[in-house]
Each structure stands twice: as structure tokens, then as C-alpha cells.
Amino acid sequence: MCELLGMSANVPTDICFSFTGLIKRGGDTGPHKDGWGITFYEGKGCRTFKDPDASHCSPVAGFLRDYPIKSCAVVSHIRQANRGKVGLENTHPFTRELWGRNWTFAHNGQLSGYQALATGTSIPVGQTDSERAFCHLLHRIRTRFPEGPPAKPQTFWRFVAKVAEELKALGVFNMLLTDGRYLMAYCSTKLQWLTRRAPFGAAKLIDEDMEVDFGALTTPDDVVTVIATTPLTEGEPWAAMAPGQYVVFRLGEVYLKG
Amino acid sequence: MCELLGMSANVPTDICFSFTGLIKRGGDTGPHKDGWGITFYEGKGCRTFKDPDASHCSPVAGFLRDYPIKSCAVVSHIRQANRGKVGLENTHPFTRELWGRNWTFAHNGQLSGYQALATGTSIPVGQTDSERAFCHLLHRIRTRFPEGPPAKPQTFWRFVAKVAEELKALGVFNMLLTDGRYLMAYCSTKLQWLTRRAPFGAAKLIDEDMEVDFGALTTPDDVVTVIATTPLTEGEPWAAMAPGQYVVFRLGEVYLKG
């Protein structure tokens, strides 16, 4: 299994604090030692840092922990391999283009019978159930909306949730998906989220002896939502999602729930 | 205009030395201050580091200069914007999937009338002539080989060279393209390459006061080819390509020329 981390915010915000907690679980406070990755959006563009090594001792992860990249949409993943060997081609997040935007996907869980999932022209590069599920999702979207995105984003996200529901029937399918504007969290077994807004307080990481006073780092209008497999901090009101539930965030706020 | 850097090798080799020379040209010894990127292949997987800032003072570039990532195929680019604003979505290299492999593309030059280039299902995310040319190339490949890659790689690469020739007719089109196994260098105006093999000697960068003795870092069987817009080192036999010429490298050796 693996762990997920996502962020949706209304102002470009760095994720160094949460990432510091996450990467400790990559082979130190957690067993997820088989690679890690993180994707930051800046406008329509995005960049991914990934490494097939354990995050808790990865020099690239160490660099990012101390280098604040500000973004309104972030997806991160640490991996404990089950389907597919340890290697860069099997390291999440995966990014592909659809309709002239970059779509980024990360998955926690394990699927059975995933080899039978149709992928159309989106062919997996690696061997994971996750990448195949992502390619299947893109194929289903292209087939359902051959003319491009529907007029109402709600129509689109409800369809994605429907496909996610089908994938959940194949095993465990906790998922983060973003195009840099919207970020969907789909819960199959475990996923929690937390919105920070004024008045901002302090927070303390669970996996590392580190505390931050967000009041000193934010403005009163900032809204920042963090999504994670399990809470990264103590004493904050993380909301646990129920199996089959999804939330689509936009600029840190809940845009759609189901 | 921009500068290109590529590497093809028969053993995983780091490119720190050449990259150190290149990034000095990103706003210091050269004017290419509008972003930079570098893609490393490890097997079928690849990872890209990119930044919309000038490479000579980019903390990410500084980190990579000192952090040896070993790879058999590398493509790098530093940008001086002409078509498309400065931003991550316009920063090379660009990577897209075709036939279950990651294809990475970088371009030096400027094209006219590029908005008319058909791209099929590969839609550009940014505004550059370069990304559009890459999407056009992928579209042409898909249309020419609808059943997947032809039996002979030569057939494939000759077709790519033919499309590159057409793109060259729209302006300046120096290009690097790789799938991690093969690396094509297509010359429109300037591109040079150099193969290092035993007996290895020392080399000195032009853009930075740095010298390396490759004899101390290599084994007698290593073959490493470096491709660049203009020579990065003094006293080594760089080969200048002629306009319209291409070379496809595989494991550091010339695989196909035209």
C-alpha cells in the first residue's frame, strides 16, 4: 500500500510542512520505501519530482523539504510496491495530457483483474495497476466526452466518480486527480482532509518533531485544504471520508461532494 | 533562441559536467534566462526537472549540478523565450506517451505558421511553437503507423527525419527526440556532437573554470556521446552537423545517419 497527499489552495502556497511529515513515512515512521513523487502546478504547467528510492533518505526529497515551491494544486505519493517492480516508470504521480491540460493522478490501494481494463490510445508505460487504472479513466473520459469537456464541470466530475466507483469494485482505490484547477479526492478505504483558514493557528506534525504557526505565514483570505491518507498533524479537525465518498476541491474550497 | 544538450551512453552516466557548462549559459555566459529543464531516463521511466527561472541562479539547477543522476539517455534545454510567455507550461523538454513509452522532445529555433500544424489528439498545453511541433510530430507518427511501431526502427526514424525536414521549412528547427533507447539529433542550423570512449582524456569547460579527467571516472568499455548547440568543452573533437542532417544514437553509438 501507499500514502497520498494533496493540496488545493486559493493562493500559491508551499507544502513543505506537510511534505516533511509525509516523507518520514517513506521508510522511517512508515514502510513506504519504494519510491515517492510530488507534482506542483503553476498555472497550466506542472512539474514533478520523483525518485524510486525511499523518501526519508532521498536527497531530492530532502532538497524539496527545504525549498518552498508555491502552488495552488499539489499531488504527492509515497509507494510501497505491490503491483509492478520498484522503478521510475512505476513511481506516482502519473501525468498525462487531455484536452490541452495536464492531468495528474496518484493511487493508494491494490486492484484485481486490472489487466483487463481497456485503455484505448493511452497505453501504460509501467506495470502498475495504478497507471493502468489512470489510462482506463482517461479512455473512459475520452469515450464519454468525445467533443471535449462538458459545459458543466459537475457533469464531468460526477462521471469521474462513477468510473472510480467501478474501479473500487476491483479492490482498494483511494485516488487523487487534478488538472491544476480542480482536485478530486476519491475514498475507497481511507482518506482524510482538513481546511485551514482564518483565524489560523499552530499545527504540530505527528511524524516529525516540527511545529508551524500558520498565522505568521498567511493572510486572512488564504484557504488551504490538505488531503492525506491519515492525519499528518495533531490537534487539527481532520475529516475522515467514508468509503465511496468523494470531494472535489477548487481553490481550497469544496466544489462538489458525493 | 535556446540551447540544447543531449546524452546517449552505453552505461548509466551522469551529466553533471556538461550540465554545469550549459546552465552557465542560462543568464550568465549566455542570454537563455527564461527557464530550463532536463529529462533523465532510467529504463522505461523518466523524470524531468524544470524551472521557469534562469538556470544559472536556479536552486534546482544548482542541486542537480552536484547530484549525479546516472542515465543512458538525457535531454536538456535552456530557454530564451520567443513564442509563448515565460512559464512552466512553455518550458522544455516536453514528454508524452506513445506506444507505451515516454517520448521526450526539446527544440531550438523559431517557426512561422506553426498554428496551422495539425495535432490530432495530442493537444498542446502551452503556447510555444515547439510544443505544437512536438504534438504535430506525434500526430504524424500515429497517422503513418496506426498499428504501432514498424518492424525496423530505421523505417521509423527516417519518417521522423522527413517530418523534421518539413518543420525546418517553417523556420529554424534544431531538435532532440528520445524514447530512452534511441536519441535523434536533427540539425537545422547548429548542433554539434562528440563521442567519448577509451582512451579517455581530460576535458575543460568553456563556460566555467572546471576540468574533468574522464579516465578516472570511466571503464574502458564506456561509450558516451554528448550533443550540444555549440561545443561545451575546449580541445575535444566536436563534430558540427550540417543543416538538414540528422544522427540517431543508441547506447552512445551512431545508429543511423542521414
UniProtKB/TrEMBL annotation, chains A, B:
<protein>
    <submittedName>
        <fullName>Putative glutamine amidotransferase</fullName>
    </submittedName>
</protein>
<keyword id="KW-0808">Transferase</keyword>
<keyword id="KW-0315">Glutamine amidotransferase</keyword>
<dbReference type="Pfam" id="PF13230">
    <property type="entry name" value="GATase_4"/>
</dbReference>
<feature type="domain" description="Glutamine amidotransferase type-2">
    <location>
        <begin position="2"/>
        <end position="258"/>
    </location>
</feature>
<dbReference type="InterPro" id="IPR017932">
    <property type="entry name" value="GATase_2_dom"/>
</dbReference>
<dbReference type="InterPro" id="IPR029055">
    <property type="entry name" value="Ntn_hydrolases_N"/>
</dbReference>
<dbReference type="GO" id="GO:0016740">
    <property type="term" value="F:transferase activity"/>
</dbReference>
<dbReference type="InterPro" id="IPR026869">
    <property type="entry name" value="EgtC-like"/>
</dbReference>
